[in-house]
Design goal:
The protein contains 15 helices and 16 strands. It is rod-shaped. Helix 3 packs antiparallel against helix 11, helix 7 packs antiparallel against helix 8 and helix 14 packs across helix 15. About 55% of the residues lie in helices and about 15% in strands. It is α+β, with helices and mostly antiparallel strands. A five-stranded antiparallel beta sheet has the order 2-1-7-6-3, sandwiched between helices. It has a five-stranded antiparallel beta sheet with strand order 11-10-14-13-12. The longest helix has about 70 residues. It has three domains: about 280 residues, Beta-Lactamase; about 110 residues, Helix Hairpins; about 60 residues, no CATH class.
Length: about 575
């Protein structure tokens, strides 16, 4: 506020100048200019820091969140693969049992149904079936009454029939095959599609196929001859055991505002078939679908998605990867995600703290800049005030600045200048006083000379008059007349000199008129030529020819010439 007040006061106190508002800014006082400059720099730096800091913090939080979900996806994949490996181990264990070897080649099978069913339940399998070497079903533990159908076209069964090695994969199982294995599995696989925001448009209203973690292993008799295939699997539709384990293992029950922070989902195509993502009513979001942009990148493009995405009803930081069947075709997606709200809140809080620190720093910088600018402007104001006093004639004015910087040096220089001016002024006053005294002395001498000339003028008049009378009485030639003639001549000369002194000493108003400079100068020379001061001085006359008349007061110009001539004579 101090800075803004200073600037506004400067604008109010400055006299009006030509130009607009921008022009007025360039005519601010130096203190206001400094504070305005500091203010603009601090605002600019604060804005840059705020923008860059906010961007860096936000970007860093996004990177951390994406790195976490990428790691979480790796953990989820391990859990997914471990489940598939568990099923593979269970199927291989069954294929190595002696009673299975005999069942694949024997005509009778009923006595082992219960035993295989116990193994299926123990291994938590939804399907456990045995075929012969041609792929014809010999026994189903989930639907024992149905057998004899051909499974040789199943991907995994066909692979085992051809290669005689165990195989496993995630596969899509048509609803008819599920119904043969168990009507309950077919019902569990049927999922109604729920309209989902940002999902792609699908014409069907339900999905009836199932997605299964499935394994198949060859069966060999006691002579190591291939006699059949055992396959088993776990239907993923509505089976939430794996996704809940992923959530518990990876996210460890982390919550945000009473909701699970992390979630996991298994997609069949874009359909959630196993998930712990919840809808608004708190139920699992089975039947909802992935956002279209995610589906296009992962299922259609075969790429990973590690970015924010809209999940049912919330924005989340998500990671998706494709799930492929035994042939490499993409049949679904594995997903883990974190609610974005937690990161947004933390980011917002961090940005707020950063902005608060920036603001406090800016205020401190403003305070410091105000102090520095006031210190500079105060020093300048002291110098300006001292200069004004000096200009008004106060030569005793001194400026006291103890800043220890260039302003102190400038103040000391100013004080030195003031002292020098005072000394010069005193010397000038002494010289002026001497000149005045000399002028007064000369004036007195002039007055005395005028008085003497006036007193001499009367006797000279008598001398000239009586000399003229005597000349008239002696008309002839002779020594007496010659002497009288000299007396008359010298008396007239003295009279002329006296008249010149009277004219020179007489003060009158300037009477300018065109005069010949040479004539005025000649008259001055005639006044001084016979004075004692000039007896040993040769006067050289070099007048300019054809000089035009010049407007002047001849009396004052005579005084000027007389002073110059006398000064020149005294200087010789």
């Amino acid at each position: 506020m101090n800075i803004l007040t200073t600037i506004l006061d400067s604008l109010r106190n400055r006299p009006p100048r030509e130009g607009g508002g921008l022009a007025r800014l360039f005519h601010l006082r130096i203190g206001a200019k400094l504070e305005l400059s500091f203010l603009l720099i601090i605002i600019l730096i604060s804005l840059i820091l705020s923008l860059v800091g906010t961007w860096v913090i936000g970007d860093r939080f996004v990177e951390q969140a994406q790195e976490k979900v990428r790691t979480d996806l790796n953990s989820a994949r391990e859990i997914y693969q471990n489940n598939l490996l568990r099923i593979t181990d269970a199927v291989r264990f069954v294929s190595d049992r002696d009673f299975v070897r005999s069942l694949a080649s024997a005509e009778s099978r009923e006595w082992l149904v219960q035993r295989l069913a116990d193994i299926r339940e123990q291994e938590r399998l939804d399907v456990l079936t045995v075929t012969d070497a041609a792929g014809i079903v010999r026994l189903r533990t989930t639907n024992p009454v149905l057998f004899g159908d051909d499974q040789s076209q199943d991907q995994l069964v066909r692979a085992v029939l051809q290669q005689h090695v165990p195989v496993s994969a995630t596969v899509l199982v048509p609803t008819a095959d599920l119904a043969r294995e168990s009507p309950q599995l077919a019902a569990r696989a049927t999922i109604e599609l729920i309209p989902t925001e940002k999902a792609r448009v699908r014409p069907e209203r339900r999905s009836t196929d199932g997605m299964m973690l499935k394994a198949a292993a060859p069966v060999f008799d006691f002579d190591h001859r291939f006699v059949g295939v055992v396959y088993g699997g776990v239907l993923l539709n509505r089976n939430h055991e794996m996704v809940d384990k992923i959530k518990q293992t990876v996210f460890q029950g982390l919550q945000y505002r009473g909701r699970d922070m992390g979630t996991a989902t298994i997609f069949q195509d874009d359909l959630r078939i196993s998930t712990n993502v919840l809808t608004a009513d708190g139920s699992r979001a089975v039947g909802t679908r992935a956002a279209e942009n995610v589906y296009n990148r992962v299922v259609r493009g075969g790429q990973h998605w590690i970015h924010r995405a809209y999940v049912v009803r919330d924005w989340s930081i998500t990671a998706y990867e494709p799930i492929r069947d035994y042939g490499g075709a993409i049949i679904g997606m594995l997903y883990v995600g974190l609610l974005e709200g937690k990161y947004v809140e933390v980011r917002r809080r961090t940005v707020f703290v950063f902005l608060a620190v920036t603001l406090v720093g800016s205020l401190l910088a403003l305070t410091l800049s105000h102090y520095l600018s006031r210190r500079i402007s105060n020093s300048l104001e002291h110098l300006v005030a001292g200069a004004e006093q000096l200009a008004c004639g106060n030569l005793d004015q001194r400026v006291e600045i103890r800043s220890g910087d260039e302003f102190q040096e400038l103040a000391e220089t100013f004080n030195g200048m003031a002292a020098a001016l005072k000394k010069r002024d005193e010397q000038l006053k002494e010289q002026t006083a001497r000149k005045v005294m000399e002028s007064e002395r000369l004036a007195i001498i002039g007055q005395l000379a005028a008085g003497v000339a006036h007193e001499i003028n009367n006797p000279l008049t008598g001398i000239v008059t009586y000399s003229q009378l005597l000349l008239e009485k002696n008309p002839g030639e002779g020594s007496t007349r010659s002497s009288l003639q000299k007396i008359v001549t010298q008396a007239n000369r003295c009279r002329k000199i006296v008249r010149g002194l009277l004219d020179f000493s007489r003060q009158s108003k300037p009477d300018e008129r065109p005069c010949n400079v040479n004539a005025v100068l000649q008259e001055c020379i005639s006044l001084v030529a016979n004075q004692a001061l000039f007896h040993n001085i040769e006067l050289v006359k070099r007048f300019g020819e054809n000089l035009p008349p010049v407007p002047m007061d001849p009396s004052q110009m005579q005084q000027v010439f007389m002073n110059l001539i006398i000064n020149a004579a005294e200087a010789t």
